[in-house]
Structures are given as C-alpha cells and as structure tokens.
Design goal:
- The structure is a single chain.
- The chain is mostly helical.
- The chain contains 17 helices and no strands.
Length: about 350
C-alpha cells in the first residue's frame, strides 16, 4: 500500500511538472517535466519502480503509433526502405567514432567502450555486452546517460533547426479534445485488451521491445483491413510522455551516477557530439532525398525508440517514418553487432591491442 501511494505521488508530481513545462512552451514538455521531477525524487533518495506501469504504457503507445500506419503510409514506407536501411547503418556505425573517448577518457576496455558508444538501446546493448564479456554495469550507465541527454537536448536542437515544428508542438499540446460515443469507448477497451494480449504472447518471441512492437503490429494489421474505426484518445500521448519521463528519471539514483563520474561525463559529451553529427547528416540527407527533414531528424536521432516516437507524435512529425527508422536500427543491431564485434576484436588482437 505504501508503494502504491508513493508511485501515485510521483506520477502526480511528474504530471504537474509536465504541465508546467508545457505551459512554459517547452517542446516535449510533458516528458521533460516528468523526467526532471522524477530525477529530483531519485536524487533525494526515493526508489521508484514503475517497470510494470511502463510496460503497459508501451502497449498503449504501440497501439497509438500503429494506428498511424494507413495503407497509403505503408506504400510510402516501402518506397523509402533503402534510405531507411542506409540511415540505420550510418547511425549505428557513427557511434564507433567516439569509442576513443570511452577508452581514454573513461579508461574502459575496448569491448565495453564499443557497447557503450553504439546507439542501440539500453537493454539490447547490455545483453550483447554481457555475451561479449564486457562490463554490463558500465554499458547500462553510458546508455542511460545517452537517453537522458538526447531527451533533454533534442527540443533545443529542434527549436534551432526546425522552428516551425516547435510551434506546432506547442499548439498540439494545448489542442482540443475529441468526443467519444459509448460504442467508441467499447471499441477502445477492446483494442486495449487486444494490445495487452498480443504483448504477453510476444514476450518470449524474437521481437525487440515486445511490449511496444507487438501491439503496434496488431494495430497496423487492423489498419490495413479497415477494422480500426476509432483512434485512441489524444491524451494518450500525454500519459505516455509522463510515464516515460518518470521511468528515465528513476534510473538517476545518486549511487548510480557517482559510481563512475568520468563515464557519466564522457557519455554526455559523446552523446552531444554524436547528436550534432547525426543532425547534420539528417539535414544533408534531406537535401538529396524527398523525405521530410523532421522525419529524418527524429529517425536518425540516437535516442530510444519509445522516447523518439512519442516526441514525433507530440510534434506532428510522421510517426510511421520515425518508428520505421528506429525499428530498422534495432533489428540491424540485433543481427550484426555481435558478429561485427567478434570480427573487430580478432583484428584488434592481431594488431596487439587489448579487446
């Protein structure tokens, strides 16, 4: 019971922080406000565990995102698939440019540095680091700092490079509400139940992030067969932002940050450098392709898939395109990073370097 009231207090306070950030015209205000409030609680010594709430929040998010995949959008995605694959590879391999910062600045071995610097997701990189014999704790810390830095810095970068989308985001945050009939609400309830069901079924499958991807695929299938007549309520984006913000802030416990202060600093610096590199690459790619600049910026962001797709939805950017970028990058990371590291480590060993 104490845990319930503690979680309720944190979520309520985080919602208030998000409301204040949104009222201050901060893009992605609900997520950033919740992140800052949650971080304040954890730095004050409170332990926050909302893994189950976050999982079900990802189910709702996956359903909401999947409803954006109309047949017309699916045809557009197929046309853009070569570009999405190329950008996914470039984003993953760009992290290698900053491996030296981790080996020299944080004094990590090459294996741990490799998995710290690749923008492939906290869980995925931690699992692959463990398999490769690298330090899982250092990788989790570096990847968590990366997510936090991206979430906090991206609104500033978007304000600089895409001010129109920033204004649209503020307008969307204070937009009107949609009326639902009892029949609509019944359909929403059935859709949520279906999303939870497929997520549980997919937990032991090969899908990365099954809590989000399985419901998303479920909603996409419904969209293609015209069996999805009602969109989820608009406020769902707000709820997802608050939950994601709290889950990120909950990781910033003092011991976690103090354990390797140099690694925290190196992770933050490398993330800012990587972000600027990918922003410039996205803008350059937009000039030689027909894809929207904002979709490329979000798609090539080194942030996490849930955070960036929520941000894209909140800022009026094409969610299917952004989600396709991040899902492609995760699939590529699943398929190629481990064998790539084994080949690279053998080359390092032949050259006399310590892998």
């Amino acid at each position: 019971m104490v845990t319930f009231w503690k979680i309720l207090l944190v979520l309520t306070a985080a919602g208030g922080g998000g409301a204040l950030a949104t009222a201050a015209h901060i893009p992605l205000g609900w997520l950033i406000g919740a992140l800052l409030v949650s971080t304040g609680f954890t730095l004050a010594g409170m332990t926050i565990r909302i893994d189950r709430i976050r999982a079900y929040g990802l189910v709702v998010l996956g359903l909401s995102l999947g409803q954006s995949f109309t047949p017309e959008i699916m045809a557009q995605l197929i046309a853009y698939l070569p570009l999405i694959l190329a950008c996914g590879l470039f984003t993953l391999l760009s992290g290698l440019l900053f491996t030296g910062l981790f080996t020299k600045g944080a004094e990590l071995d090459a294996s741990t540095a490799f998995f710290c610097t690749i923008p492939g997701g906290v869980v995925l990189m931690a699992v692959q680091a463990q398999r490769a014999g690298a330090s899982e704790a250092h990788v989790v810390l570096a990847q968590t700092v990366r997510l936090g830095v991206v979430v906090l810095s991206y609104p500033v970068l978007l304000h600089v490079f895409l001010p129109d989308h920033t204004r649209d985001a503020v307008a969307a945050a204070v937009g009107g509400t949609q009326a639902y009939t009892p029949a609509d609400l019944l359909w929403v309830a059935l859709l949520l139940a279906g999303g939870v069901g497929v997520a549980h079924l997919a937990r032991r499958s090969f899908l990365p992030n099954p809590w989000m991807i399985a419901p998303c695929l479920f909603a996409i299938a419904l969209q293609q067969t015209d069996l999805d007549p009602v969109t989820l309520p608009h406020w769902i984006v707000t709820v997802c932002q608050i939950i994601l913000g709290v889950s990120l802030g909950a990781r910033m416990i003092p011991d976690f940050l103090r354990r390797s202060l140099r690694l925290v600093v190196v992770s933050a610096v490398s993330t800012l450098c990587l972000t600027m590199l990918l922003v410039l690459a996205a803008l350059a790619m937009a000039r030689i392709s027909t894809m929207d600049e904002a979709a490329l910026l979000f798609g090539m962001s080194p942030g996490g898939m849930p955070e960036m797709t929520v941000a894209a939805r909140a800022m009026g950017v094409s969610v299917p395109l952004v989600l396709s970028f991040h899902l492609t990058r995760i699939l590529l990371a699943n398929l190629m990073l481990e064998p790539f590291w084994h080949i690279l480590s053998r080359l390092l060993a032949r050259c006399g370097a310590k892998p």
